[in-house]
Amino acid sequence: MTTVTQSPHPLRALVESGNHEGIEELLHPDVQFRSPAVHTPYEGRETCLHLLGHVVEVFEDFRYVDQIDTGNRTGLVFRANVTAPDGTTKAVEGWDYLTHDEEGKITEFVVMARPLSGLIALAQAMGARLEADPVPKG
Amino acid sequence: MTTVTQSPHPLRALVESGNHEGIEELLHPDVQFRSPAVHTPYEGRETCLHLLGHVVEVFEDFRYVDQIDTGNRTGLVFRANVTAPDGTTKAVEGWDYLTHDEEGKITEFVVMARPLSGLIALAQAMGARLEADPVPKG
């Protein structure tokens, strides 16, 4: 067996330390964010930070459980719970699929999640928050 | 920049060559399959093969677009289209998140997909097929 010595991805390190403000530094100004729920990508760092600011509030008991790296891509697997607006809590398993430029800035930030029940709760919880606090216009 | 020399994962190689029968050899007898739609894992090779047999029929224009490897885990990113029972076709982006034992057999086969519209079409198309051809009892 090969022993893989793996550094925690900077995003993982920040999230695990609770330093969400540091995330801005990791994002390319033109980062594309593809949410697990919505088809159309979101564009730009400010928009991405706005969304992530709500995501960290929506996820309960969030923890990263795996990291896979190859070249300029990293996959961070997570588990969490999400409480939908009707009060029911669902388990979610997902991953952050990150692509980086030569300087290590994240240029693509894709999130996928399962199962359907968890993703629906996530979409509903995020939808309610974004209705009250819409994504800034570019 | 580091140049990563990467062999295609055997599952990717089989799917891309159209040899779906070879997939059985890759799966551990007790493989756990976590579908993108359903919360409860499916258990065992026969069940997993039954599900994958329908999955390959449901996905149109299926292609793998990325592969990430670390240790005994591989992430295969794919894109495809899915036509729901009502006839509407949706784009899906997803990944197969695979964990292997020491012999390289797949012990965990997790699939996640986005966006919600694509996952719903996938769940509906799979649901219709599994109603007509149920998963075998263990």
From TrEMBL, chains A, B:
Residues 14-108 form the SnoaL-like domain. Signal peptide: none annotated. Gene3D superfamilies: 3.10.450.50. It holds the Pfam family SnoaL_2. This is SnoaL-like domain-containing protein. It comes from Euzebya pacifica.
